[in-house]
């Protein structure tokens, strides 16, 4: 009985402290007036004016769309670089709906995200295709590091930037995540209530695939647990070597060569990332891969843990014949509400939704955003 009373007393005290914090943080409170000065955002480390606006994309330029390099920062003070696309027929003083676009995992804005962003700008939206932290033209060291936390934050940072532009309606902002960035976009939609509509294309759940490998539904939990531990041991040992050497071992990008025995989906990746249609020297998918030590975070910090709490609209798109289709189908099962939709594209494989303009359902994507960004 004494123990129970003590536990109850502690719970009440904890609740009281939490209430005081919440009340004290409110605008106009006496506590807020006595609070320490807020942390100041650091100056952005990249000047957009010094960046080239020369067309260097892996897709053709649309004459109906203007583009310019911009910079913004996330809450960790990392400066990100993006291409802002605007329709050239936009009227003076008009405020448009806006969409932040990123992905795939390992890609840069000159590849897939820029293709989506330019097409949606041609359809009347302001769009921002950006390089994630540590990649492409964006800042952050060590290069080509990834993080379930920081990469989710990058989407919210893009929303920060779009929300403060005078030609954008801040209540009409959506996000679009492709491949591995589909998982980050869903994660952000669960966190950031400013996101009013989310499109997910050919999604990967990076936490799941890094922790369990491909096609984990074919293995029992004991096998998965054993394989995860072996991976943890190897990567943890590599961290020691990285620190000793002062360099970070890379996981390796998409293979530069394939053989008859190479799985078809890996051949598809090769045909995009290593061939002219998609190769970019800034992309770690085309070059080095991510830092190997990045993988540990994903094993321990699963994405989508609050996906069932997303109240805003979500459209998920995947290819019927994609090896990755199960990621979207399983993530979709977590979503609640009548404003969620899963669209399966007949005969399409994973990478078809990277670049095939006759396969990517832009009419559907446009209609979805127009319905929910209004």
UniProtKB/TrEMBL annotation:
GO molecular function: hydrolase activity
Keyword Signal on entry: yes
Domain of life of the source: Bacteria
Domain Xaa-Pro dipeptidyl-peptidase-like span(s) in chain numbering: 77-344
Presence of the UniProt keyword Iron in the record: no
Signal peptide: 1-32
Keywords, ordered alphabetically: Hydrolase, Signal
InterPro entries: AB_hydrolase_fold (IPR029058), Polyketide_trans_af380 (IPR051411), Xaa-Pro-like_dom (IPR000383)
PANTHER family associated with the record: SUPERFAMILY HYDROLASE, PUTATIVE (AFU_ORTHOLOGUE AFUA_2G16580)-RELATED
Protein name per Swiss-Prot or TrEMBL: Alpha/beta hydrolase
The organism of origin for this protein: Megasphaera intestinihominis
